[in-house]
Specification:
about 260 residues, 13-stranded antiparallel beta sheet, about 15% helix, mainly beta, single chain
């Protein structure tokens, strides 16, 4: 798929070419020990009656959307374009230049002792040698299995806290507490996908097994944060309009997972 400027800004915002604290392209079990440890306190804001004080567990099945810069022919010019892993768009096969790349990761995490499923999104950028040079947008949210979407409520960053590399909220907890319960006001990004709908006959275990095996095809991305396109109005990015050769933004199972 070819990413337009609008889509690239949305999905990779903040993913600047600077030294990254870590490379997230690894099996989930090899991530820093406390990478998700700060997240239950955020989830607790919307689930005050649940006990989320235990160790958060991340599912070993990681989903990712991958893009690589390659040459395509456009208007009698060789033009850099960021192409998706499954893109069928014709590239200039006589020039095998491969530039920077990006990966968009989706992690499934679960709290304890009370079980609560949540999803983490993290964007990363790599140079032409495959070195991670920037970590961009990161969000924490929930799945709506009835309507088929992921609501990302909390903006995150990768930081070192008390010597541990982990995901932390961009806003202070006290400020987030004031927003708790104001669902739409707090929503940052929404991913829409028919794959996220759970049928009545499908158990929760079978539902997650299907997503981990088949991946997630996102048809629309909605940005609720103030932006250059809509101002204070949410902006809808329809994937088959901004990524011309694909119908979906595809998050696929990582092949290198054990």
């Amino acid at each position: 798929m070819i990413i337009t400027m609008g889509a690239a800004f949305l999905l990779l915002q903040g993913c600047l070419p600077k030294q990254a604290l870590m490379n997230p392209d690894m099996p989930v079990q090899q991530l820093p020990r406390k990478f998700f440890a700060q997240l239950p306190q955020l989830l607790q804001l919307d689930h005050k009656k649940k006990d989320l004080s235990g160790t958060v567990e991340a599912d070993a099945n990681l989903l990712a959307a991958s893009f690589t810069e390659k040459y395509i022919e456009k208007d009698n010019l060789l033009t850099y374009s960021s192409l998706g892993e499954k893109s069928s768009y014709p590239v200039a096969d006589y020039d095998d230049m491969v530039g920077a790349s990006q990966q968009l990761f989706l992690y499934h995490i679960q709290t304890a002792p009370d079980k609560l499923d949540a999803v983490v999104y993290l964007a990363a950028r790599y140079n032409e040698d495959g070195k991670c040079i920037g970590l961009g947008s990161a969000y924490l949210g929930y799945l709506d299995t009835d309507e088929g979407h992921i609501d990302f409520l909390f903006s995150l960053s990768v930081k070192v806290k008390n010597g541990d590399t982990c995901l932390v909220a961009d806003k202070k907890l006290a400020k987030l507490k004031k927003l708790a319960g104001q669902h739409r006001f707090a929503t940052r990004i929404v991913f829409l996908s028919g794959d996220l709908k759970q049928s009545r006959a499908e158990t929760t275990a079978a539902y997650w097994k299907r997503l981990h095996a088949d991946g997630i095809r996102v048809s629309k991305v909605i940005e609720y944060d103030p932006n250059k396109v809509g101002g204070k109005q949410p902006v809808i990015f329809t994937i088959n309009e901004i990524m011309k050769d694909e119908q979906y933004l595809q998050f696929l199972p990582k092949k290198d997972q054990p």
